[in-house]
Design a protein that fits this description.
The structure is a single chain. The protein is of the alpha/beta class. The chain has 2 domains: 9-51 and 192-236, Rossmann fold (3-Layer(aba) Sandwich), CATH 3.40.50; 53-190 and 239-272, Rossmann fold (3-Layer(aba) Sandwich), CATH 3.40.50.2300. Helices cover 45% and strands 17% of the residues. It has helices at 16-28, 53-70, 88-103, 119-132, 145-157, 173-181, 192-207, 211-217, 246-251, 257-260, 264-272; strands at residues 9-11, 33-36, 47-51, 77-82, 107-113, 139-142, 187-189, 220-223, 230-236, 239-241. The protein has a 5-stranded mixed beta sheet, with helices on both faces. A 3-stranded parallel beta sheet has the order 5-4-6, with helices on both faces. A two-stranded antiparallel ribbon has the order 7-10. It is globular, with a radius of gyration of 20 Å. The protein starts with 8 loop residues before the first strand and ends with a helix. 47% of the residues are buried.
Length: 276
C-alpha cells in the first residue's frame, strides 16, 4: 500500500507490536497514520479514532451495579471476564468497569482475561471461575457480548441464567436478544457508522494536506502509555442499552426487529419493550 502512493493510512490493529512496525514504515515515508478503533501503543500514530473506551467500561460497570442493586445485592463478590490481554481496548474497558464496581462497594472475587476474545476459551475460563467460587457471584462484568454469552451459557447449565447479572457490549444481535429475554443485564451500543465517518473525514483532511482541519476534528487526546505521547483523538460517546432501550438501537439503523424477534419468546419480549 505504501509503495502504491497512499497519502494516509488507517490501521485496525490485532496487536500493538505488529501495528507499530507498520506505522513506523509509514512514518519513514511521510505518510500520516490513523489508528482506527484500537490504539497502537508505542506506534507513534498521528491520530486515533474510536469510542471513549474507558467510558465504554464505565457504562458496563454502571449497568452491572444497577442490575445487582435491583437484585437487592448492595455488596458481594463480582467476577471480571476481561478481553484479550493484547488488546489495549480491553485494558481500557476493564479500567472503566472495575472502578465503578469497586467504588460501589463490591469485591472482585476473580479476574481473568480471555486470549484473542475467543468465546470458546471464555466458556472454559468462566466455568473454572464459577466452579472455584461455587457459583458465589452477585454479578459478572463481561467485556463484550461474546464473552457475556459464554458466561451465560455456563450459568444456564447451572440453573442461574437471568439470576446473576451479566454484562456485555457491542450491541450484537445475540446480545440484544439476551437483554430482551433478561439473561443479559445490558450491553453498550457504539454507533459504528459515526466512527467510520469520523475516520473518513480525518483521512480526507490528511490526504489533502489540511493539518488544521484534521486537528479541528480531534475532540481530545489519548495517552500512549509506552511512548508517553498524547495522540490527538476523535472519541465518540457510547450508550448503555437495557431492555427498555433496545428499540433505540433499531431506530438508529444498526439492526432490525426482524433479526431480533425470531422466536415466540423473543416476539413477546419485542412487543413488551416496543421493538415491534
Amino acid at each position: 500500500m505504501l509503495a502504491s502512493g497512499v497519502t494516509a493510512l488507517l490501521i485496525v490493529n490485532l496487536d500493538s507490536p505488529s501495528a507499530a512496525a507498520v506505522a513506523a514504515k509509514a512514518a519513514a515515508q511521510g505518510v500520516p497514520v490513523i489508528d482506527y478503533d484500537r490504539h497502537t501503543l508505542g506506534g507513534g500514530s498521528n491520530y486515533y479514532v474510536s469510542f471513549d473506551n474507558v467510558a465504554v467500561g464505565t457504562k458496563i460497570g454502571e449497568g452491572l451495579v444497577k442490575c445487582m442493586q435491583d437484585n437487592g445485592n448492595m455488596d458481594g463478590p463480582v467476577a471480571l471476564l476481561n478481553g484479550s490481554p493484547t488488546d489495549n481496548n480491553a485494558t481500557l474497558f476493564k479500567q472503566g468497569y472495575e472502578k465503578v464496581v469497586t467504588d460501589a462497594g463490591y469485591t472482585i472475587a476473580d479476574d481473568q482475561a480471555v486470549p484473542d476474545w475467543d468465546n470458546t476459551k471464555a466458556g472454559t475460563i468462566f466455568e473454572q471461575m464459577y466452579t472455584k467460587a461455587n457459583g458465589d457471584f452477585v454479578g459478572i462484568a463481561s467485556a463484550n457480548d461474546g464473552l457475556g454469552g459464554a458466561a451465560i451459557a455456563v450459568l444456564d447449565r447451572n440453573g442461574q441464567a437471568g439470576k446473576i447479572p451479566v454484562t456485555g457490549q457491542d450491541a450484537t444481535d445475540e446480545g440484544l436478544q439476551r437483554v430482551l429475554l433478561g439473561t443479559q443485564c445490558m450491553t453498550v451500543y457504539k454507533a459504528i457508522k459515526a466512527e467510520a465517518e469520523a475516520a473518513a473525514a480525518l483521512a480526507i483532511a490528511l490526504s489533502n494536506g489540511d493539518q488544521a482541519s484534521a486537528d479541528a476534528l480531534a475532540t481530545g487526546a489519548t495517552a500512549d502509555s509506552e511512548s508517553g505521547m498524547d495522540v490527538p483523538s476523535v472519541l465518540l460517546v457510547p450508550v448503555g442499552i437495557t431492555a427498555e432501550t433496545v428499540k433505540d438501537v433499531i431506530a438508529d439503523g444498526f439492526t432490525t426487529a426482524e433479526k431480533l424477534c425470531t422466536t415466540d419468546e423473543l416476539i413477546a419480549a419485542c412487543k413488551m419493550y416496543g421493538v415491534m
